[in-house]
Amino acid sequence: MSDKIPARDVTPDPVGHHEPRAVVQQEMYASRRHIYVREIKGFFQRLRRCANWLLMLAFFVTPWIQWDGRPLIWFDLPGREFHIFAATFYPQEFILLSWLLIICAFGLFFITVFAGRVWCGYTCPQSVWTFLYIWVEHRLEGSRNRRIKLDRQPMNLDKAWRKTAKHIIWLAIALATGVTFVGYFTPIRELVVELPTLQAHGWAYFWSGFFLVFTYLNAGWLREQVCIYMCPYARFQGVMFDADTLIVSYDEARGEPRGSRKKSLSHQQAREAGYGDCIDCDLCVQVCPTGIDIRDGLQYECITCAACIDACDSVMDRMNYPRGLIRYTTENALEGKPTHILRPRLMGYLVALLVMIGLFVWALSDRMPLDFEVERERGQLYQMTRDGRISNVFSLTLRNQDREDHEFRLEVSGLPGLEIDPDTLRVPAGASRRFAVQVTADAEVLELPSHPIQLNVQSQQNERIALERDTRFIGEARR
Amino acid sequence: MNNLWDDSLSGFWSAWIIVLTLGSIAFAFWILYANRKTDKVPDADGNVETTGHAADEIEEYDNPLPRWWFQLYVATIVFSLGYLLLYPGLGNFTGLLGWTQEGQWEEEVARAEERFTPIFAQYQEIPIPELARDEEAMLVADRIYQNNCAVCHGANAQGGYGFPNLTNDDWLYGGEPEQIMTSLVRGRNGLMPSFQTLGANNIENVTQYVLSLSDLEHEADRAEQGAAVYASVCAACHMPDGSGNQALGAPNLTNDIWLYQMPGQSVADSVRQTLRNGRNGHMPAQEAYIGAERVHLVAAYVYSLRFRD
């Protein structure tokens, strides 16, 4: 049994029936029981390990890769520039980030409807780092049984060095994680020199330290408690499940009644002797990183890492029983009903996901690396030039968000014979420049006190980079 | 603190705020303690107390708050009391740290000064004609100009009614670096007295003469009569030939630049109005507002306008 908070039957007694219930001292807040996770090999564990390695590699290596002389991914907060691969983004484009987050959310919903909590088991950083920490623990303190024994021992030299070494390696991994994380915000090649020589910025120390401490605590000490008590996803993923969602499940019909038996009994003989396929070896419980017994049915603690599947399959192989007593299956399949993978709910999420991806790709490809603002001169509405024409002054702000310098051609339209001065504006890469420009019109064309006009900038270097703004030309109405 | 506005409260309202604030905290603390439970021993029948709430036959235990939660609540109260002790929040009590918004602003100004002073000091070493060709410096100067000068002289420095255009080569007080500096440091006061006393006829004659000085359409005989009046009254400042005098700030009357010509107004009307009512142009001294370093930069900026294409 897992040591979840025990359930209590609070069904109201039938009227007139006052049989006292069993007195149970309720322990409201179960203290944590340390979970000794047994290491298991198998198909899904290989899959998970591959995913973990890839993700770790991506996380640790990315900041070191250079592109155009700058890190491949660099969130330059003080400079308010976000370099991602070949593109540079600015805070004004944060809408893209929200698209991206929406895509991630729909991706998560889609995969959850399809295959439950697989994100948690295979790719969630909490799991990835926890598995890495458990791997270190296993190498230093031995297998599950040896670890239990070691923890029960009084302190001795052997225990002391193993524990010390474990924590040192854990802290080293945490340090690498913290420094790498900060490396996404400040170029890591300089950071790894500055940090030990005490030349780095105070915040670099703070955040490296912050992520060091929390990586160590989360993956070393808290582990499954994060998944069970802290992670909000565990709380709402249940609403996305239905009877056709792939879940890790114990086939009760096949396994029960469980019990140990002589190994000499063949599958057939065991069946005839009234045994189910489950030999009650408890391996599925021992390998579970959240410490649940999958045979109790679907539980929200299950992170779908499939360790129990691999454990059970290895036992089934040894018993010469068919595999799959615990397997990825659906509630419908377990009940012998047909499973509909392509159901409307899943398709709905898929369509939403594809629409969001489409919008994101469109927004990204349509993204204009230019910001163009037009303000009317504040001092006066209009002026008269020496040759009797009417002029308006506009304050233009151009922000070149491209990686190369641009010379912009400025044009004005909306009234016949409009002239603009200056008509070329040069803005260096990444810079913002303000220009005062004068638009002049013949007094004769002004029929109204105010006419809508358009200002248009067009890059000479890249014709796709062009923007138009509406504004008004103010003068005196023709009398 | 020397405030323009005395924002302290009268004794009653100060006390009112203190009582309300501390009362609320005390009330929150009382609620917490009054509802505190410490034990949860089942009764003789083994029933644990419930709140009486039931949904789908699931009843809610009436349990004490988790201890960490309770302690967190107490901690927030302790925090708020500590905060009110250190920072202003209780009526007129300014807090032990003596923190004020104004102090924070002053700190930020001091930080900015510390950062920018060396940059400005560096620029101040550079002579104006050279500085005017420094692109970086002119970007900085543009900001100062836009914040302090553009409201009168325009975003593009082309001036407006009564405000001189800074982009042409017609200067009331001269456009050399020293003269621009003087205008900025000391300000200028351009006074054209009213000549109402000359009488309407003479004013009209002088107007026609002024038009003739810049080859504008005029009545020749009136202009001829005006010339004599001009020589005795106006030539002292505007010079006998009408070329103006930069030492006095008297405008050149022989070109086609008219400082006080409103859009739609004829030059003749403008000159008439000037003669009748006089003019008083005022350029405020800037050094007191923006400091010597910025004045130097702005002078270079104004000087640089002549290089604009």
UniProtKB/TrEMBL annotation, chain A:
Coiled coil: none annotated. It comes from the Bacteria. The keyword Transmembrane helix applies. The chain crosses the membrane at residues 50-67, 94-115, 168-185, 205-222, 346-364. Signal peptide: none annotated. InterPro entries: 4Fe4S_Fe-S-bd, 4Fe4S_Fe_S_CS, Cyt_c_oxidase_cbb3_FixG, Electron_Trans/Redox, FixG_C, Helical_ferredxn, Ig-like_fold. One of its GO terms (cellular component) is plasma membrane. Keywords: 4Fe-4S, Electron transport, Iron, Iron-sulfur, Membrane, Metal-binding, Transmembrane, Transmembrane helix, Transport. This is Ubp3 associated protein Bre5. It comes from Halomonas chromatireducens.
From TrEMBL, chain B:
It is found in: Cell inner membrane. Pfam families: Cytochrome_CBB3, FixP_N. Binds 2 heme C groups per subunit. Its main location: membrane. One of its GO terms (biological process) is oxidative phosphorylation. The chain crosses the membrane at residues 12-33, 68-87. The gene is ccoP2_1. SUPFAM superfamilies: Cytochrome c. Heme c 2 binds at residues 192, 234, 237-238. Residues 136-214, 221-306 form the Cytochrome c domain. It comes from the Bacteria. The keyword Transcription does not apply. Pathway: Energy metabolism; oxidative phosphorylation. InterPro entries: CcoP_N, CcoP_N_sf, Cyt_c-like_dom, Cyt_c-like_dom_sf, Cyt_c_oxidase_cbb3_su3, Cytochrome_c_Oxidase_Subunit. Component of the cbb3-type cytochrome c oxidase. Heme c 1 binds at residues 149, 152-153, 283. This is Cbb3-type cytochrome c oxidase subunit. One of its GO terms (molecular function) is oxidoreductase activity. C-type cytochrome. Part of the cbb3-type cytochrome c oxidase complex. The keyword RNA-binding does not apply. Its cofactor is heme c.
